[in-house]
Specification:
The protein is an alpha/beta fold and 169 residues long. Helices cover 45% and strands 9% of the residues. It has seven helices and four strands, in the order H-E-H-E-H-E-H-E-H-H-H. It has helices at 2-7, 19-33, 51-60, 78-85, 100-118, 138-151, 164-167; strands at 11-13, 42-44, 64-69, 91-94. A four-stranded parallel sheet has the order 1-2-3-4, with helices on both faces. Strand 2 (42-44), helix 3 and strand 3 (64-69) form a beta-alpha-beta unit. Helix 2 (19-33) packs parallel to helix 3.
């Protein structure tokens, strides 16, 4: 992780049954690297942390995103509470599945779960022009979150959330 901060590279972190140790690690990284820590994004991959731990992480570390999968998180009903607790700007989805032919379906299943828990619509059509954030469906929200993750630099104050169209290279 130190090298990722030094090189300015985003990372994906998997942490199993170690909420406090992971929180302590994030806190040490922030203390050691200060503002540079916030230049990178951390994908908390198939996060199994408790809702309470996630709330602390989300409050203290603006560069950490919650990512959930049906393969890992779907095995427990706790993932729905994590989705509910997570900021709409910090949630990502993934498949975390070994067979490529199942990845799309499994990722889509988690997209639908996020939409249901958050009360977001699922886009039936795609509109390329900018629309107001309150009109975004789950896919546009997740796309925006992915761009925010990819771009990093969580110390910069943005006057408005970055819309997917402005985040494209």
């Amino acid at each position: 992780m130190n090298m990722a901060v030094e090189l300015g590279r985003n990372i994906s972190l998997h942490s199993v049954k170690s909420d406090q140790a992971t929180l302590d690690l994030f806190n040490r990284m922030h203390e050691r690297h200060q503002a540079n820590w916030l230049q990178i994004s951390i994908d908390f991959h198939s996060c199994g942390a408790s809702t309470e731990t996630w709330r602390v992480i989300e409050k203290r570390h603006t560069n950490i995103f919650l990512s959930l999968s049906t393969a890992i998180n779907g095995r427990s009903s706790k993932h729905r509470a994590l989705i509910a607790a997570c900021s709409p700007h910090r949630i990502l989805v993934e498949s975390d599945y070994h067979a490529i032919e199942e990845c799309t379906k499994r990722t889509w299943d988690m997209v639908l779960t996020v939409a249901e828990v958050k009360g977001w619509s699922v886009e039936a059509t795609w509109v390329d022009h900018d629309i107001r954030e309150e009109e975004w469906g789950v896919v546009r929200r997740l796309e925006n979150n992915w761009h925010e993750f990819r771009l990093g630099n969580h110390t910069a104050l943005r006057s408005a959330r970055c819309r997917p169209s402005c985040a494209r290279p």
